[in-house]
Structure formats: structure tokens, C-alpha cells
Amino acid sequence: MDLKIMVMVCFFGIKKERFKVGRAVLPKFYLEDVGLEIFEVLKRGGKKVAVSKLPQVMVEDFLGEYLEIDVVVGRELKEIYLVGKADKRSWQRLPKQKYPKPLIFHDGRLALRPTPLDAVAIFMGAPFGFNLAIFRILISKSLPTNISTPLSAFSGMYLTTTMPKNSYSLSNTEKGKKSKGLLYVCNHKTLLDPVYLNVILNKSVTGVTYSVSRISETLSLIKTVRLSRNRDQDGRMVESLLNQGDVVVCPEGTTCREPYLLRFSPLFAELGEVIVPVAIDSYVTMFYGTTASGLKWLDPLFCLMNPTPMYTVQFLEKVSGLSKSCSTSSNGVVSKFDVANHVQSEIGKAIGFECTNLTRRDKYLILVGNEGKV
């Protein structure tokens, strides 16, 4: 009865066809709760049937898609063998490399599994985290970098920076004559990626974004410029910004929480004379600072609400860009697609991420059911 009441309270008024959490959130938590031992047993069997008291809509997407198991809800069976609590305590958690299918996209704000203890920690820590996030925003907006950075570190924010083996000056000058600004190309983990680059470089950079809320733009420590997704218009915009200074771009077009890289748009390869690949990884303890279906203006707040958010930033060897006249592969000329794939590959190697051909559109179709246009 208590389970039925809980389910009713949680799902009252939600239509089955709109139950996106089934494919966007629950697969992650279910996979993290699978025991390695029982998974190995299931792999050896023939037909697999799962018996559950939970509503079928909650489990069919996960069990059907990831484990290829038929779901039986609320049916009585003649013979049942139960796994004891002692057996479960000795189980090892199923490692990610053994997932039947890779878990690349998922949504929801919680980075922790909502176990009873973790749920208590989240509810108790959320008010403190909110005040901590406000404090971090205020010191970053009101104080100079040489003061705000140590204070941010004191508040629990960790940042690790690595330069290439053949260290170079992060500037773009030729014989005393200023040329175009550097184009920093990085993978996308959170909205704070360009901000961290600005802090590390200790110089002004411009971040170009596809869709960001007005509140996030207001809170940003750096200049941000919106792209229109019109190729020619965006190309002219970025080229104009490069003539004024350094620019940061995330060619994936959206964030990816797991260790995978989405396909890089090749537009940047045509625009920058000198491209600096930047490999970024982040770690959060309680909340994800990204969302596909939630309120995007809360992204930076949730990111900064984590007690000890960690960032690692690696600057890689410079790559030469292409002029627009050389944007197609002919007569041995490297194409813009080759440059984009090379940069993606180098970033993936640096942080151990797997390169994919998935795009921003794929992510939003899977998680939200639309193409992610704002």
C-alpha cells in the first residue's frame, strides 16, 4: 500500500506519452543500481522476464532497451526465487564499460542516486548550496580576478590546468604585427567553460553560444555573443569577433555529461588562422549544471551549488586553420572536416573521451522529443 501511495503521489496527472523521465532520467539510476553478479547470470540465460511492483511505464524503457527483458507487472507466478539482502550487499556495481548499450545522454539535476541517505544529504545541503552559489557569483562579479580566484578556491572550487609539452605563448602575433585573435576550440561540459578559460588566460575572451538564457548572459563574467545557426551569418559574426580579439567556441553545440564527444561542427576550421584545442572535463558532487528539458537559466546556479565542483583544462598543440577557399578536399588539401575531426580526436585522446557522430539534434530528440531549438 505504501508503494502504491508513493507512485500515485509522484505520477498523478502525468500522461504516459509525456513521461519523458522514463527515458531521460531513470536509465542512469537503474544502470548504476545493477549488480555485476546478477547481470552476468542474466546474460547466460535465454528468455528473461522481470517482475516488478512499479508501474510498467517506469521500467519498460530501461529493461526493454538496455537489457532486452520482458516486463511483468503485478502478476502472480507459481514459483519465485528471491535474492537475499546478504547476497545484494556482496554485489559489485556494474561498471560502465560493461553496459549492454552505452549511456550517453541523460537528464535531470541529480548527480547522486536518490538513495535515502543521499536524499537526506541533498535536502539538507540544498539551502547551503544556494547561498554558496550566490557567494561565488557575487565575488566573481564584484572583485578582480586576482582576488576572486583565491576566494573561489577557498569556497571549494577546484581547477587544474595543463599546458602542452612544447609550451607556447598563448598569443597570435607575426613580426610585431597583430593578426587575428586565437580561436579556442573546446568540448562542452557546462556554461562555465569559456569563463574558466578567461580566468586561466587572465585576458579578455569572447564566448559564442547557440542558446543561452538572458540571466546567464547577465551573470557571465565574459562577453557572450549569440549565434543564429545560419552558417553564413554566424561565419561573418565569428570572423568579426576574431578581428577584435580571442574567441572561445564549443563546436559540439551542446553539453554532454558522459565521457563522449559529440560531432564537431566544421565551421570553426574555416575561420581561425590559429586554432587552440582545449580539452575540458568536470566533476560535480550533487547537481548537474546542465539540462535539456528544465529551466536553462538555473544551469549556472546548480553548477555552483555543488560543494566541491572540479574542473580540468588542458591546452593542446596549436592547429592551423583553413581559409574559405580551401574548405574542400582536393589536390591533397586538407578539408575543414578533417580539421574538425582531428581536433575532436585530439581532445578525446587528452581526456579519454570516446568520439561519436551524434549531434545536438540527436541529444534533444532522445531526451526531449524536439530538435532543441530555442
Automatic annotation (TrEMBL):
Keyword annotations for this protein, in alphabetical order, are: Acyltransferase, Membrane, Transferase, Transmembrane, Transmembrane helix
- Localization: Membrane
Main location per UniProt? membrane
Task: Give the signal peptide range.
Answer: none
An annotated Gene Ontology molecular function: phosphatase activity
> For this UniProt entry, what's an example GO CC term?
membrane
Its domain of life reads Eukaryota
This protein's record includes keyword Transmembrane helix: yes
Q: Name one Pfam family in it.
A: Acyltransferase
Q: Could you tell me which residue ranges the Phospholipid/glycerol acyltransferase domain spans?
A: 182-283
List GO BP terms, alphabetically: cutin biosynthetic process
For membrane topology, the record states: Multi-pass membrane protein
Give the UniProt family note: Belongs to the GPAT/DAPAT family.
Protein name (database record): Phospholipid/glycerol acyltransferase domain-containing protein
What organism is listed for this UniProt entry?
A: Lithocarpus litseifolius
Q: What is the lineage of its organism?
A: Eukaryota, Viridiplantae, Streptophyta, Embryophyta, Tracheophyta
